[in-house]
Design goal:
The chain is an alpha+beta fold. It has two domains: about 270 residues, L-amino peptidase D-ALA esterase/amidase (4-Layer Sandwich), CATH 3.60.70.12; about 120 residues, Roll (Ubiquitin-like (UB roll)). The protein is built from eleven helices and 15 strands. The strands form two sheets. Strands 1, 2, 3, 4, 5, 6, 7, 8 and 9 form a nine-stranded mixed beta sheet that branches. Strands 13-12-11-14-10-15 form a six-stranded mixed beta sheet. Strand 11 and strand 12 form a beta hairpin. Helix 5 crosses helix 6. Keywords: Acyltransferase, Amino-acid biosynthesis, Arginine biosynthesis, Autocatalytic cleavage, Cytoplasm, Multifunctional enzyme, Transferase. This is Arginine biosynthesis bifunctional protein ArgJ. Catalyzes two activities which are involved in the cyclic version of arginine biosynthesis: the synthesis of N-acetylglutamate from glutamate and acetyl-CoA as the acetyl donor, and of ornithine by transacetylation between N(2)-acetylornithine and glutamate. It catalyses: N(2)-acetyl-L-ornithine + L-glutamate = N-acetyl-L-glutamate + L-ornithine; L-glutamate + acetyl-CoA = N-acetyl-L-glutamate + CoA + H(+).
Length: about 400
């Protein structure tokens, strides 16, 4: 596997575009298009929130029907959530407009929205945006990058990733883009992720690879404990790499999953590190666990702890908060066996051994915790399983952003 530059246009046959439709924002692009020159098999995972936005309902029906897709239309600024039948009708109108502008089947047009809940989309602006996107779509990396920027809301950076790998002498590419900064929590978050690949793969294998990998990537991040109404991950495969078809249970399937995991984990970590108001990506890593599930529960509990996140913001080695978060996680472990370390580019430092503080340097701990990427490693000494979860520090800026989000 080789990491390459690019995003949703990295794979063969995919094009993208961005435009300023002025849906909510008046000074930036706010609509994006992903287009494939050939129809794609699709896979998807969606929010676990009972309150689901119109685009989530629309896309779930397309993915589950087996209908192939050639386009995804995404807008930022307004979420099209809690908008009733009118919201669904706007998904339908968007699909029809895209089908007309692109010359494709409207039954397979996927849509995505992110932004303020409860507002209706200005459908005339959406339609005009679709027409503009259809005219501007290109296969170059810059167009993919512009699309990634157009779907941002409170994000401060665009998020892209891409890799290539070989199957039977054919080069296969997977690329993607995502957005997410606030309302981020395990079991899908306020996040949109769009992954494209030119792999020839069965739909069953495509969905299986995505569904399993989401559990170890997007479902292992948290910014603020809120699970959104709009969370969507879509994976489109157009088969243009012309490799031997990938099926479940084959070595080729394992290679595909490895590459997909890299893209998904990279995008997930970028979202966690770009949490609203954040100054640091915070990783919690559990090692020595008896089971994978035990490790995941403990790691998630640490990154979800507001007290721990505040301590990271203050560069304070307040290890008691981490042990406390592990204790209320619901996972069984012996706190008197736990070793805890802090690690970053500034070094690695043991903080506790067998549940008790060691004689460590507070100055060194502060230096380690002052880096833009910080890891807490907890060894619970029960076995050989590990798991990581990702979040960010909690700052005053988070409140400032969310106190006036609608305005």
């Amino acid at each position: 596997m080789q990491v390459i530059e690019g995003g949703v246009t990295a794979a063969k046959g995919f094009e993208a575009a961005a435009t300023a439709a002025k849906i909510k924002y008046q000074d930036r692009t706010d609509m994006a298009l992903i287009y494939s020159v050939k129809p794609c098999k699709t896979a998807g995972t969606f929010t676990t929130n009972i309150v689901q936005a119109a685009p989530v309902k629309w896309d779930k029906e397309i993915v589950r029907s087996g209908q192939k897709s050639q386009a995804v239309i995404v807008n930022s600024g307004i979420a099209n959530a809690c908008t009733g039948e009118e919201g669904i009708s706007y998904c339908r109108e968007t699909a029809r407009e895209a089908a007309s502008a692109l010359g494709i089947d409207e039954k397979g047009v996927l849509v995505g929205s992110t932004g303020v809940i409860g507002m209706q989309l200005p459908i005339d602006r959406i339609k005009a945006g679709v027409q503009a996107l259809a005219k501007e779509k290109k296969a170059d990396a810059e167009s993919g990058s512009e699309a990634a920027e157009a779907i941002m809301t409170t994000d401060t950076v665009k998020k892209e990733a891409a890799v290539t790998f070989e199957i039977g002498g054919k080069t296969v590419t997977i690329g993607g883009m995502s957005k997410g900064s606030g309302m981020i929590h395990p079991n899908m978050c306020t996040m949109l992720a769009f992954i494209t690949t030119d792999a020839k793969i069965s739909k069953k294998a495509l969905q299986a690879a995505l569904s399993s990998d989401v559990e170890d990537t997007y479902n292992m991040i948290s910014v603020d404990g809120d699970t959104s109404t709009n969370d969507t991950v879509l994976l489109l495969a157009n088969g243009m790499a012309d490799n031997k078809k990938i099926r479940i249970g084959t070595p080729e399937f394992e290679k595909f999953k490895e590459a997909l995991h890299y893209v998904n984990e990279t995008l997930a970590k970028k979202m966690a590190g770009d949490g609203e108001g954040a100054t640091a990506l915070f990783e919690a890593k559990i090692i020595g666990a008896g089971t994978k599930n035990q490790a995941k529960i403990l790691a998630k509990s640490i990154v979800c702890s507001n007290l721990t996140k505040a301590a990271i913001a203050g560069h304070d080695a307040n290890w008691g908060r981490i042990l406390c978060a592990m204790g209320y996680s619901g996972a069984e472990f012996d706190p008197e066996k736990v070793d805890l370390y802090f690690e970053s580019a500034a070094g690695k430092l043991k903080i506790i051994e067998n549940g008790t503080a060691v004689d460590y340097s507070e100055e060194k701990a502060t230096e380690i915790l002052s880096q833009p990427e910080v890891t807490a490693i907890a060894d619970i000494k029960e076995g050989g399983e590990t798991a990581s979860a990702w979040g960010c520090d909690l700052t005053h800026e988070y409140i400032s952003i969310n106190a006036d989000y609608r305005s």
